[in-house]
Amino acid sequence: MTMEELHALFLEHTTICTDTRKITENCLFFALKGPNFNGNAFAQEALNKGAAYAIIDEVEFKTSDRFILCKDVLETLQELASHHRNHCKAKIISLTGSNGKTTTKELINAVISKKYKTIATYGNLNNHIGVPLTLLSIKENTEIAIVEMGANHKKEIESLCNIAQPDFGYITNFGKAHLEGFGSIEGVIQGKSELYDYLIAHNKYVFLNADDGIQKEKLAGYTKKMGFSTSNHHYYNITFLGVAPYVSLEVEGVQINTQLVGKYNFPNCCAAILMGKYFNIPLEDIKSAIEGYQPQNNRSQILSKDGFDIVLDAYNANPTSMKAALENFSLMDANQKTIIIGDMFELGNTAAEEHQAIADFAKQLNFDDVHLVGENFFRTKTSFHKFPSFVDLKEYLDKNPLKKGALLIKGSRGMALERILDILK
To answer: From the Swiss-Prot or TrEMBL record, what is one GO molecular function term (predicted)?
Structure first.
């Protein structure tokens, strides 16, 4: 079957499924493989549950015309996504970065959808599978698609750009994330900048934070760009007003009061505002979109529970975002400040050094009570309460309840520190 024929089939069956537990009637099932599973073995089950066709890459599983045999299912999914992307008229905005991608993507979508028909990456489906699935969710009437791109090693963003072929791009920042794969902060910069490299090579448009020296330097000679800054009047000026605890800012004399905690969310808002201006969205609509956005999924959420004012930021963590969260929390107005922070993953051979640095940084901020959770934090040299696992923390808190007040909860996704909400007393 040619790609044109497969795409025609897709236009008749526009739902893509890769998990037999989520099969919908008349979908296309792509039998992807993983380290511990072979999707081909589940293809018949997908058809039994209602899939119209199953795309497979092992001939022994083809027992009827409803099985479509290809060379490689993942490559076919990616090629179909690129074909569909070129079939549709939607413009693509791609964004990557070490921190803030998903929040920034949601803010951009909130702003641009005020005027245009948009789609955006669902959740954080931003990898070699998620990006194709996002592209395949583009409809005939979609005008702009906001595509988040994640990476944990070099050449991954380059590959995603070749699939998505973005018209616009933005990098949130360069931080100490996925050092195990990138090798160093220099590797992070090189890997994330593959988005710039693609856009420049194809003469596409770039948005930038002109207060970020790395971005400014890398784009110094490029003309198809628009940036924001708090001080450089060669760029679009946006003023940071403060956090109490939510970010407030001013643009063109208009104050915008967000529902986002932490100064680290200020540039995320600025990026959305900048793109709103580029796409000629009225400032009052930009303001409405930014002020109406509420973070979800354990991302810098403000909660009140049982006498605690909680900053729940348990979706992800790396040294850069952890330091920013601690610094922001230290500025909050509260009589009792308690932090519970969990291990940061994918740091490779820098893990011990980076966890110790965070423990030392927390010491400087003079919090009232500090609890470190996870094997890496447990090995740090500090006087803080340390626990090798969540179970150990829970046993301690059952006997030693936290004092009421402000509470920061932050850690990598694998630590699942949102479970703390269930044991507060």
So the answer is: ligase activity
